[in-house]
Design goal:
20% of the residues are buried. By secondary structure, the chain is of the alpha+beta class. The longest helix has 42 residues. The chain is extended, with a radius of gyration of 38 Å. The strands form six sheets. A seven-stranded mixed sheet has the order 4-7-2-1-11-13-12, with no helix packed on it. It has four domains: 110 residues, Immunoglobulin-like (Sandwich), CATH 2.60.40; 67 residues; 149 residues, no CATH class; 101 residues, no CATH class. 16% of the residues lie in helices and 42% in strands.
């Protein structure tokens, strides 16, 4: 028996003489959060019952989160929780345990027959009874036929045993995964008064579960539309399989902090001189480190990570929920189950963007607005352009709003960076200042048969002190020198007709005092 829980009274199941016979509860709803899940079970209580038993629950359920709901006319008293091996709880054996034992019996029967044939074959090999000349041929033929029959039957038995073992191994692995006969299970006992009977509801939190958002984006370049599909990867290792259950995915964070931190006082005083450092002690032999107990190691060990139908979307005040229309099966083995949550058809502006100072390639960009309804958590996204897979990235709602979403290189737009020209010398009447002039040029060619919109990005120098002066000249004039609100981020946006070449240049004149040493960060 485990120690008493703060919010629960733990009592022995056998100490309550008025307990009704336990009935099987069933899972009626599962809500999965990132890192945890809420499981809801129901149990039909007969009229006049004084206690209800919900057995075969996972050993890892959070007893502090147990909640019981009863209909009108039913009064609920105290809760009791205990853990014990599954083998000691009636009805908690693996559902395929009978099948496992039947297969084991069949394999044992085949093995016994094979041993008998092996003994018969050994006797034939040792057969030395003398025979007359007339009987030699008949005896040899009989031995040959008998040996042949034994060998054929041995081969047949080996094949049959192999087929049975192939059926047995996955069942044994599944039974071992759920804890086997020696694995622990929880039993919840509810003291109640139910003159009319009714349905009792029990909910609890389990860890080792979670879901991760994912996306698929398909760009139709000609129509300038993006089909954005929501997906989810669900996995759980809670200790109980979810079979044919209604599933809801929530963006809520019940494991996160319930409130944020408060500011600490900000005090300012005169700094005191640091005291002199004490002399170093004489070196001594280091004591042997104390071996941590298994409980301490367990507390320090990191917690292991849990491993086309449109869902209904419910927008709450603080979280979004996706209710799947179909029932699902999620085994407790950490395997990921892929689900589709729906899709959106979005209008997009398709353009080509390049930052030639860092990468001499042009990339196809789709700029679009995500729907304001619902939450769009960050997650991996697979990208398709005109039906072809072009790569993977990560969807971040804030970044998509600012820079759009990339769909791979556009090999039909070629960029060439011309050599950078740089001069430096003194300036001013008395040579009191130094000056550097840096010129950059790029050449862009559109090999498409249709016009494209080009965005070319570059960084311009930004002075952080008044005595450092920067003058910049551009050809053609850029659309912005503060792209996305960043000073010095220069953006050209040009319409390139098919088969044309465009040159872009930038000249930066930087001057500073003669005795100043510049520090540049690019």
């Amino acid at each position: 028996m485990h120690p008493a829980l703060p919010a629960l009274s733990l009592v022995c199941l056998t100490s309550l003489a008025t307990a009704v016979q336990a009935q099987d509860s069933r899972i009626t709803q599962v809500t999965v959060y990132p890192g945890s899940a809420t499981v809801q079970r129901t149990l039909q209580v007969p009229p006049g019952a004084r206690q209800a038993v919900l057995a075969c629950l996972p050993a890892g359920l959070d007893a502090q989160t147990l909640q019981v709901s009863a209909p009108a006319g039913m009064t609920v008293g105290e809760l009791s929780v205990r853990q014990q091996p599954r083998a000691l709880i009636p009805g908690c054996a693996h559902p395929q345990q009978a099948r496992i034992r039947a297969l084991e019996d069949q394999i044992a029967a085949l093995q016994a027959e094979a041993q008998g044939l092996e003994q018969a074959g050994g006797w034939l090999n040792r057969y030395t009874q003398p025979t007359g000349t007339a009987q030699i041929a008949a005896t040899a033929d009989a031995l040959r036929r008998t040996g042949q029959s034994v060998a054929q039957r041995q081969h047949q038995l080996a094949r049959e045993r192999q087929a049975l073992e192939e059926q047995l191994k996955p069942l044994q692995a599944d039974a071992q995964r759920t804890g086997g006969a020696q694995g622990l299970a929880s039993t919840v006992l509810v003291t109640l008064s139910a003159p009319q009977g009714g349905t009792l509801q029990l909910s609890y939190q389990v860890r080792g579960t979670g879901w991760q958002p994912g996306y698929r984006a398909s760009l139709d370049v000609e129509r300038q539309r993006v089909r954005l599909e929501r997906t989810a990867q669900v996995s759980q290792n809670s200790g109980e399989d979810w079979r044919d259950v209604p599933l809801t995915l929530s963006t809520g964070q019940p494991n996160a902090a319930a409130s944020g931190p408060l500011p600490r006082p900000w005090r300012i005083s005169e700094a005191q001189p640091a005291p002199p450092a004490p002399p170093m002690p004489a070196p001594v032999a280091a004591p042997m480190a104390r071996m941590a107990s298994s409980a301490e190691m367990a507390s320090l060990a990191p917690t292991p990570e849990p491993a086309s139908f449109d869902a209904s979307v419910f927008e709450g005040s603080h979280a979004t929920q996706f209710v799947l229309p179909q029932r699902v099966n999620v085994p407790s083995n950490g395997e990921q189950l892929s689900l589709t949550l729906g899709e959106q058809q979005l209008d997009a502006q398709v353009l080509v963007r390049s930052t030639p100072a860092l990468d001499a390639h042009a990339y196809l960009i789709a700029s679009f607005a995500l729907p304001e309804t619902g939450v769009w958590p960050s997650g991996p996204i697979r990208l398709y352009r005109d039906g072809a897979y072009v790569g993977a990235s990560r969807l971040d709602a804030a970044q998509v709003a600012q820079t759009g979403l990339g769909f791979g290189r556009d090999e039909r737009v070629q960029l060439r960076a011309l050599p950078t020209e740089q001069t430096q010398g003194s300036t001013g009447f008395t040579g009191s200042r130094q000056q550097r002039v840096e010129s950059r040029r790029w050449e862009v060619r559109n090999l498409h048969r249709t016009p494209v919109t080009l965005q070319l990005l570059d960084a311009a120098p930004v002075a952080e002190q008044q005595d450092i002066r920067v003058e910049s000249r551009y050809s053609p004039q850029p659309a912005s020198t503060r792209w996305n609100g960043q000073p010095g981020s220069v953006l050209w946006e040009l319409a390139l007709p098919p088969g044309t070449t465009q040159q872009i240049s930038a000249e930066h004149r930087i001057s500073w005092p003669q005795d100043m040493r510049l520090r540049e960060r690019r």
